[in-house]
Design brief:
The model has no long low-confidence stretch (mean pLDDT about 85). The chain starts with 20 loop residues before the first strand and ends in a 6-residue tail after the last strand. It is an alpha+beta fold. Helix content is about 20%, strand content about 30%. It has one domain: 2-Layer Sandwich (Alpha-Beta Plaits).
Length: about 100
């Protein structure tokens, strides 16, 4: 396992979100930051630059959404816009994860 060093004064987001939380982020190490920032601005998304520790090291992401909701916060319109963004950047950079709720 690789030792990870976090970036000082940059908020750390857990790799696996808390139960019920959806996160949508773009890995800025894999995508052109200007394209990502333009996408966020054009679509009215406020983003935060965060770090996500992984087993391979620290990833720097533009966190576009982080919401605790029961269903996906990605509506059809945003989903279509993300598909379009995926044609302009490395699609692997787009990360949508959900913290699963534990079974009763």
């Amino acid at each position: 396992m690789m030792a990870t060093t976090t970036v000082r004064d940059l908020r750390t987001v857990r790799y696996a979100p808390s139960p019920g939380v959806h996160q949508l982020s773009i890995n800025l190490g894999l995508a052109d930051a200007a394209t990502v920032f333009e996408f966020a601005h054009k679509n009215g998304l406020r983003f935060e630059i965060v770090q996500i520790p992984t087993t391979q090291g620290i990833e720097i992401h533009a966190l576009l959404l982080s919401e605790q909701v029961e269903s996906s916060p990605l509506g059809a319109e945003l989903s279509d816009k993300l598909d379009e963004l995926a044609t302009r950047i490395n699609s692997v950079a787009i990360r949508h994860v959900y913290g699963r709720l534990k079974a009763a």
